[in-house]
Design goal:
The structure is a single chain. The chain is α+β, with helices and mostly antiparallel strands and 94 residues long. The chain has one helix and five strands. Strands 3-4-5 form a three-stranded antiparallel beta sheet. It has one domain (7-93). The model has no long low-confidence stretch (mean pLDDT 89). The two termini are 23 Å apart. It has one helix at residues 65-93; strands spanning 7-13, 20-24, 39-41, 48-54, 57-61. Bound molecules: zinc ion (ZN). Zinc ion is lined by residues 14, 16-17, 19, 42, 44-45, 47.
């Protein structure tokens, strides 16, 4: 499967594990700037976060309980597959 196009972005810290991300890739379609409220998945821990895009730039915040519930209902299978891929990549690197 080809990698989706990626997009450089202002470095943003994962609110769960502290990993600093400076690029993002859409789950489908063309690379674009993240919009306020878009879902992000951390490349290191696989936890969901929410993009905050404002006058001061782009950052990430943890989802509210309600947002997390909605995300897991809509994207639970994809997130599980993504976490498996992260775990597999970590095993290959060790
Ligand atoms: Zn993380």
């Amino acid at each position: 499967m080809p990698l989706p196009p990626s997009n450089r972005m202002q470095p943003s810290t994962c609110p769960v594990c502290g990993y600093v991300m400076d690029a993002n890739a859409p789950s489908e379609g063309e690379a674009r700037e993240p919009k306020d409220g878009d879902l992000a998945l951390c490349m290191r821990c696989g936890e969901p976060a929410i993009f905050v895009v404002g006058a001061l730039g782009t950052s990430l915040r943890p989802p509210t309980d309600q947002e997390r519930e909605k995300v897991m209902l809509e994207w639970g299978q994809e997130i599980a597959a993504y976490r498996n891929a992260i775990a597999q990549a970590k095993r290959m690197l060790n």
